[in-house]
Amino acid sequence: MKLSAWAVLKGQFKKLPPVATADLTGKTVVVVGANTGLGFESVKHFAKMNPGRIILACRSQQKGQAAVEKIKAETGYKNAELWIVDLADFSSVKSFADKFEKDGGRLDILVENAGVSIPQYEATKDGWETSLQVNSIATPLLALLLLPRMVQTARDHGTESRIVVVTSELHHWGSIPKKVLARDDILATLGSAEYCTPSRMRTFYNLTKLMNVLFVRALNNRIDTSTPLIVNAVNPGFCVSELRRDIPFPLSWIMGFFEWISAFTTEEGSRQLVFGAVGSGKLRGEYINQSHVEEPSDFAVGEEGKKAEDRVWDELVDILGKVDRRVSTTVEAYLSSPQ
Predict the structure, then answer these.
(1) 3-class state of residue 27 by DSSP
(2) What pLDDT is recorded for position 314?
(3) Is 17 part of a structural domain of the chain?
């Protein structure tokens, strides 16, 4: 699908469907990046569906605990918990998964909402460009580490578990240069200081969101249809958000102006996260926009994108297998060759 800026702008003025609902009695929901914005609003929606537990996976103890208390005050829901995870630190993601192995119980829904947009190159302690690690490497790491628990939960309770990866319509303008695709180390190249020049960093967020779409499609293609696990990518649209807090002036002013005239509210955007988690219809490996399935970018569905998808998957599994050997075990035990 070839998306124009005009089509995106028109879409911002459409009336969105009401939030999807379901009975979540006894189920466990994890929302990453839940203390503010889209994540927090989605937790409020889930809290009204009577889940057994909602785990707010947040980076900050103070902000996360404040969010838990606010959820209790605004919804009356008493089973919200704070668990700490920082996607800019692989060891933190591993610790989160360790905690689930020890005392996490069932896991039915994982909403991977955490994301950053950084205007200049910054390296994490793990040596990756920060937005690439948070948006496109640690997000898959968390999903793959929790995948066995999600599959087991679904089998034990006769349900289907769901992974929701939050992407953006900006993936339509994300691309992997041909020179990078010609290399054996696509992710390593994209995450290097040499590649992340100031001009490339201005649109780097688009690339990380394209990577989200490629990951969802690659993972779905390796999940057998008999496995009770659904994974989708959702686009919340252009919403009132703290995501743009690090954008420098004058671009911050320009974005603020467009936010004022056309942005969805944060609650409206959160409906897409909830739809990915509980909505009905053909929802396997799909890109969801405004509560219905759409075709992702031309690159993602084209021959070049398919080749890139498989190569990035192989590189990602190799990288993450070295971060945590459980990733390799999960891929071997639960996933198959691309369908």
Answers:
(1) coil
(2) 97
(3) no
